[in-house]
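Database export, one record per block. Field names are fixed; values are copied verbatim from the stored entry.
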Amino acid sequence: MARISLTASKQLLLALPVAERQGREDFFMAPGNARALELVSAPQGWPDPVLLLTGPAGVGKSHLAHIFAAEQGAMALAPRDLEGLSHLPAPVLVLDGADQGLTHAAEVGLFHLTNLVRAQGGRLLLTARRPPQFWGLVTPDLVSRLRLAPMAALAPPDADVLRAAMVKLIAERQLSLEPALLDVLANRLERSIPVMRAAIARLDQLSLEHQRPITRAMVYAVIGDGDGEGYTEPEPLPSDKDDDF
C-alpha cells in the first residue's frame, strides 16, 4: 500500500476559501424544498406580507434568501440593523438567520418591522432553523406576530438529489471522477449541498496543484480520513497506479 503525506495538502485546503454560487440556476429543487422555492419566486401570491422559511443548516435557506434578494431587489438586513428601527427601510426585505443572535433591542425592532411591513404593503422574508416559538423570544407579542406568517419548512436533500447535485458540480468544473469515488463522497460527506460544493472545489484545487486527475487519496483527504501525518492508501482503483497525489 502507498504511504502518503497529507500535511501540505491539508494546509492548502484550509488556505483556499470556496466562493459559493447562489443563483437560481445553482439551486437544486427537490420535493423537500419545492414549496419554499415556489413561494420565494412569487411573493405577490403570499397570503401574508411576511414569509418564514425554516429548516436545519445546509438545506438551502440562505440560498433561497439570496435568490429572493436578487430577483426582488430586496434589502438584506442583519439582526443588528433591527435595533432602534422605527421605519420601513425598503419595500422588500430579507432577514437571513432571524433566530440567530437577536438581542432584546433587535426583537423589539423585528416586532416593529413586521407591523410596518404589513401596514405599508411591503414584503419580508425571514429564514430560521426552527419556528419562532423555539427562538427563546422575550418580547411580548412578537411570537404571535410571527405566527401570522406562513411558514415553509425545508427538508434535508435526499440521496438522489445529493448525487445529482454532485454530478452537476463535477461537470461544471470539467472534472472526471470514477463512480466508485463518487460513491465514497456521497456516502461519507455530510448530506448538505454546500458541504459537497466545497468538497468538489477542494478536489479541483488538489487536482490542479498536483497536475493529475482526482485520485482516491485526494478524495479520502478531503473527507477527512487523512487527519494524521500519513495515511495508508486503500487498495487502488484502476486509475491510481501511482497514487501519491
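Remark 1: Residues 29-153 form a domain with the Rossmann fold fold (CATH 3.40.50.300).
Remark 2: The longest helix spans residues 193-210.
End of record.
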